[in-house]
């Protein structure tokens, strides 16, 4: 008889500042053990630029009045803000039998399947994690793995002010065009897109986790 699949809990956080959520992810990862259920956090951030662990500050061209946070995920620089849906994946990769590269593939497949439901044909790019449509970046991803567990995740541009990307070289690529579902003619909300992402991610992870259970907000992220 196969052992039961690990539990997974789903938290909808609404619109929240970046740094308290980042700290909450680190705290969760530090205190979890082999029995801790995995979690998916779905949210929007207030406007912020985040620079990855090995990110080059030269890719920040003009921050204007947007705050900049040096964070601990992989990758270079990106923007988060209203109209962009973020899904953070706090998974015990060792327990699930997944490696970081496989998780990246699963996340990219999740986004590609989600936007296909809106009639958008998206693709990967070798050596450039994320999801692209006609050469323009639609979704970014960045992860950190510590103690065999992942945190951070993906960001899908739904209906956001793309002008903020003009202040950076997105993901470290000068001149990289960035797009959104709205710019591609899709009329939906970040909340609705987030539900679709979670459903597709559940499908991609169905061999590894049970259906996520919706739980209350973590106290560290509600203020």
Notable features of this structure?
223 residues, alpha/beta, 4 helices
Task: Describe what this molecule looks like in 3D.
Helices cover 22% and strands 27% of the residues. By secondary structure, the protein is of the alpha/beta class. The longest helix is centred in the middle third of the chain and has 17 residues, at 100-116. It has a seven-stranded mixed beta sheet with strand order 7-8-9-6-2-1-10, sandwiched between helices. Strands 4-3-5 form a three-stranded mixed beta sheet, with no helix packed on it. It has a single domain (8-221), classed as BirA Bifunctional Protein, domain 2. It has four helices and ten strands. The protein starts with 7 loop residues before the first strand and ends in a 9-residue tail after the last strand. The protein has helices at 18-31, 93-96, 100-116, 190-204; strands at residues 8-16, 38-45, 48-51, 68-70, 77-80, 84-90, 131-133, 136-146, 149-157, 213-214.
Quick description:
With 223 residues, the protein is an alpha/beta fold. The chain contains 4 helices and 10 strands; from the N terminus they run E-H-E-E-E-E-E-H-H-E-E-E-H-E. Strands 7-8-9-6-2-1-10 form a 7-stranded mixed beta sheet, with helices on both faces.
